[in-house]
Design goal:
81 residues; alpha+beta; two-stranded antiparallel ribbon; 2 helices; DNA-binding
Length: 81
């Protein structure tokens, strides 16, 4: 149960983060938009309560990177260091 809640929190944070990066919400069209969403990729992230499977959003140009964890970070220990 705690893993499910934590996964939802991380996923929501990343959704807010990509909305800020794109300066638009999903499905909103703007002629001045630089790039668009391009789905998600799954990332396993290991914490003290277990492994979470997160849906990390991506952009068409590939330049978006979440600030929640480093690009190749896979566990919580690296976050605390």
């Amino acid at each position: 149960m705690a893993r499910t809640i934590l996964s939802k929190i991380f996923n929501e944070l990343m959704e807010k983060e990509i909305d800020e990066y794109l300066e638009n919400t999903a499905y909103q069209r703007d002629p001045n938009r630089i790039t668009y969403r391009n789905g998600y990729y799954e990332r396993d992230y290991t914490t003290k309560i277990g492994t979470l499977t997160l849906r990390v959003p991506r952009t068409r140009d590939g330049k978006f990177s979440t600030e929640i964890f480093e690009k190749y970070q896979r566990n919580e220990k690296a976050l605390l260091s």
